[in-house]
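Thread: quick sanity check before group meeting

JM: Hey all, I'm pulling together slides for Thursday and realized we never actually wrote out the predicted structure for the chain we discussed last week. Dropping the sequence here so it's in one place. If anyone has concerns about the input, flag it before I start.
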Amino acid sequence: MTDTTVTGVRDGVQSVTDETALAVSGLTKSYPVKRNLLGRVVQSVDAVQGVSFEVRRGETLALVGESGAGKSTVGRLALRLIEPTSGSIKVLGDDITTMGASDLRKVRTRATMIFQDPYKSLNPRAQIRYSIAEPMLSQGGYSASDRAERVARLLDRVGLTSEHLNRYPYEMSGGQLQRVAIARALVTDPEIVVCDEPVAALDMSIRSHVVNLLRELQEERNLAYLFISHDMSLVRVIADHIAVMKRGELVECDDAAALFTNPRHEYTRTLLSAIPASHPSRRTFRPAPS
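JM (edit): ok, ran it. Output follows.
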């Protein structure tokens, strides 16, 4: 099998094989900040600038950087939840950049997303059974019995029981709701999952349980993860490859082990220096690059 790992920002997407689940190239997103009297954009800001990477089946690419770096925007662009200004997006070999709504709806059953805050991503007025089944209802083609069987099976797999089916989000803890969000993301048997800070809103005591669940599900289903996070200590245990973002641009991409051992960009070194040390005597400080 040809190695298609992105090893540097300038390399872009070197090649796309059957093992490539998600590939973006030259992805840019601009937002207008000023218009003239005719309504034409005369000033804009680039939230994402020329981002290129790929994620292979069964592997995790972590997208890291400080808040405001553009990570979540890239995650939403990758599934065309928001429209790119330029660039291309390929999901399982299909270019979805200009795909119509009907075809895009089908793609989103194969490429799904887990959002950061389960309280906001789940309908507060819907029972858990409906929240998990909703993607199947949107897609169509599932019988009522099939939907019920899938929901029950996934609920059990993520560590919840049938007694949670009739509950509402306000009746459950944050950790339980994030497990519901994971079940919902997997109910249509996707091959790609974009995880947007999936444990950031959770207590430290249950983060490891959710991360371990995500890793187990990846091994079982050969899932490709685009894992968005600002937590380098978390990324260290889950990522195969890492892409570092700063102010909307990728500044470094590499194999996870290589990046932690020998980071090339000063900004990457700053992120790594912020990881809590195992002992106070090992703490180091590097000023953030301008």
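AS: nice. Strands lie at 20-35, 41-56, 60-64, 86-91, 94-95, 111-114, 192-196, 224-229, 241-246, 249-255. The CA atoms of residues 27 and 51 lie 5 Å apart.
JM: adding both to the slides.
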